[in-house]
Amino acid sequence: MIKILDSTLREGEQTPGVYFSPEKKLVIAHFLDQIGIDIIEVGNPAVDSDIALAINLISQAGLKAKIGAHSLCKIDNVQKALDCGIDFLGVFFSVSKKRLYQDYNISLEAAIEKIVEVINFAREQKNDLLIRYTPEDTVRSPIENVIAAASAAVKAGVNIISIADTTGYTNPFHPQRSIFNYVKTLKEELKKQDLYPQIEVHCHNDKGLALANALDAYRAGADIIDVSVMGLGERAGIVDLGELLINLREMGEEGNHWQLGYLQDLYNFVSEHSHISIPPHQPITGKNAFTHYAGVHVKAVAKDEMLYQSLNPQILGKKSSLALGMQSGYTAVELAMKQIGRAELAENKDLVAKILQEIKAIAKRGTPIDIEKELPEIVERCNIEQLMT
Ligand code: HCA
Ligand code: CU
């Protein structure tokens, strides 16, 4: 059974300009818990005392999800995280050539020693702590370095190894860069040493492939997938929570377990407090995700919605809707008139034609027509004009 780690409160808060107060983090954590998220990664308490406060608050909220902190590979960072009452700890340290020799200036052996020391420390402090080690920029690091660091980390007490595609480098169709192959190889290599950690994947969206790569990793048997609300995160962000859950659901994962009816409220809350709007055409949670517009579409969905949908909005506690504008036809006008309580006038074909003409003219202003607010007045005006002729 696949597990989901949500990092809206850690990676998501690495979106420039985004800050969620501890109280808002708690609300977001409640939503995530209601949806059925397994691990909520909150942040690094060494970064700011508000993050420590948030982890404390959320850890004490009695949620089903495991509550975690992110930590540098440093004893004092780990201690700060442990002081917040966490169930989960994520430690990262890269073993890529560039990082080892151009940035940290240490050998692989020294890096592994450091990783082992920090993991040992965390394990000694808390026996039932779920510990993850991430060789940051995993997929651009020499595989032998990753295997050496990962196996040492597992032997020191790590439960999870995360494959981080820190820069959005992988591609399901690239002969050398598929995360599918990476998951398979890492599992096989660790199995040779009789090591069976859970494998997590963290896919960045720099080239728009985060979701595709996450599903590729799922197909290869990854155990945990990282996501965030709206895919928030550094640069182009990571995998979008709603999009991943819907796709996994269609593949038979956890269909009845995830409470997808909470997604829209969660997205609205995160959007409001991150000051980042949800694009109207965003799958699942965008305003237009289930809105039908062009004449042919509206006419068809009036008979059967699924003629232009492959996802039933009811799964999300939502309904489909229609939009009016340049592309509209008679059916849309009739349906919209019924929607605003003017069904009796919708019988009048000449009036419907007049209203349609009027709507097309208004639509040329280039912004959406508000059915509830604008249509009553348009209907009224056209009706009076028609009665007078
Ligand atoms: C970061 C980088 C990170 C870490 C992922 C992890 C990445 O610290 O911001 O610790 O599992 O993309 O590699 O998000
Ligand atoms: Cu990341």
UniProtKB/TrEMBL annotation:
Alphabetical keyword list: Transferase
Top-rank taxon, per record: Bacteria
Family: Belongs to the alpha-IPM synthase/homocitrate synthase family.
Protein name listed in UniProt: 2-isopropylmalate synthase
InterPro entries: AIPM/Hcit_synth_CS, Aldolase_TIM, LeuA/HCS_post-cat, PYR_CT
Alphabetized PANTHER family for the sequence: HOMOCITRATE SYNTHASE, ISOPROPYLMALATE_HOMOCITRATE_CITRAMALATE SYNTHASE FAMILY PROTEIN
Domain Pyruvate carboxyltransferase: 2-264
